[in-house]
Amino acid sequence: MNFASDNWAGATEAVMAAVTRHNGGFAPGYGGDPLTKAVNQRFAEIFEREVEVFFVGTGTAANALSMAAAGRPGGLVFASTEAHLQNDEFGATEFYTGGMKIVPVRSDAGLMDAAALSASIVRYGGRFGLPTVLSLTNATECGTVYEPAAVAELTAVGKSHGLVCHMDGARFANGVAALGVSPAEVTWKAGIDILSFGGTKNGCMAAEAIVVFEPGRFPNLTALRQRAGHTQSKARFIAAQFEGYFENGGWLQTARHANAMAARLTAGLSGKVRLGWQSTANEVFPVLPKATIARLRDAGARFYEWPAEGLGLDEDLIRLVTSFATSGDEVERFLALV
Ligand SMILES: Cc1ncc(COP(=O)(O)O)c(C=O)c1O
Question: Who has the most CB within 10 Å: 11, 45, 133, 266?
Fold first, then answer.
């Protein structure tokens, strides 16, 4: 009953097989290999346009280097109050950008709305710094998703103030699977300029990529990545992970499975316990009595508490994360214990 995080799961067989398949012989380093070129082409097919792809080792690096590429001295990044780059990255954005400031924008279950964004830009722009980047997470840190229309509305506000529009897609596959839209519809067609594309949480070992939708738009990115130590020497192994990840549409099948397991948790908990909010990707947030939480842990369940307001003294909000490796049996055992 492991609901701690999707990064507690291993890698899929398809990913491991691809890494093994490409292990033989010699290939140029630093992305000069034919496999990296072929996988970049796969990204172009998936996004239905020419793209520029920069492999990195972590989601934090993808976010922080995206911010650095789009950044400028005195720049402001607008992101939701729940944004991973605001709360969980130990100042990586601030560090890699030479001190850009993140402005947290009021959000509901991880989703910001256009009015709140607009108000923040007007309120802080020019006084705190120079409005520079909008960062949206999809699927969000709360397991909720932005529909393409919501992304388009927010990026329209951002662009009217000259912002570069970024999407943190650490759980991009879960978002796309939950929405049932194409990767293009929820990104560049909705105004996204640069995407942190996650593979690790959904079945890779360590494979993340920065996807730039207008090649050449961020000419410093190559140097920024090198300087940050994220230009992979044996890039072919990141490419191999993505090859295995995309094979036969597997990346969306694993995401659909994770989402379905989360939906089963939601269905089993609804009406019995309070949910912090409704989520449709691979994270569920029930409020449980502390005694129940202790009992679940004693029975071997793994999960984390999540910060929340408005709770009673004897209860906590917990986060349950599902993955490609979550089984229906685990879900049923957890529900029976609750
Ligand atoms: C929404 C989001 N963005 C970025 C990251 C960062 O990924 P990493 O831990 O690989 O740096 C995470 C990781 O939990 C995340 O949940």
Answer: 133
**What is residue 236's predicted lDDT score, i.e. its pLDDT?**
97
| Residue 285 alpha carbon to ligand 1 centre in Å | 18
Give, for ligand 1, the residue of 88, 111, 138, 285 to mutate: max count of ligand atoms closer than 8 Å to Cβ: 88
d(C-alpha 99, C-alpha 97), whole Å: 5
pTM: 0.97
Number of neighbouring beta carbons within 10 Å of residue 185 = 18
- Tell me the DSSP string of 301-315: -B-EE---SS--TTE
Give yes or no for residue 82 CB within 6 A of ligand 1.
no
Q: Whose CA is nearest to atom 7 of ligand 1?
A: 59
Give, rounded to a whole angstrom, the gap between the first and last alpha carbons of the chain.
Answer: 12
Exposed (0-12), middle (13-18) or buried (19+): which is 254, by Cβ within 10 Å?
buried
Contact call for residues 262 and 143 (beta carbons, < 8 A): yes
Distances (CA, A) of 182 to 48, 173, 249: 9, 10, 12
Q: Are 16 and 204 in contact (CB under 8 A)?
A: no
Does 199 contact ligand 1 (Cβ within 6 A)? no
ω into residue 223 within 30 of 0, thus cis?
no
* Residue 272 alpha carbon to ligand 1 centre in Å: 31
Question: In this structure, what token pair is assigned to residue 323?
Answer: 């993955």
Alpha helices in 180-234 (DSSP H): 221-227
Domains of the chain: 11-249 (3.40.640.10), 250-337 (3.90.1150.10)
144 touches ligand 1 (CB under 6 Å): no
pLDDT digits 0-9 by tens, 23-81 = 999 999 999 999 999 999 999 999 999 999 999 999 999 999 999 999 999 999 999 99
- pLDDT tens across 235-283, in order? 999 999 999 999 999 999 999 999 999 999 999 999 999 999 999 999 9
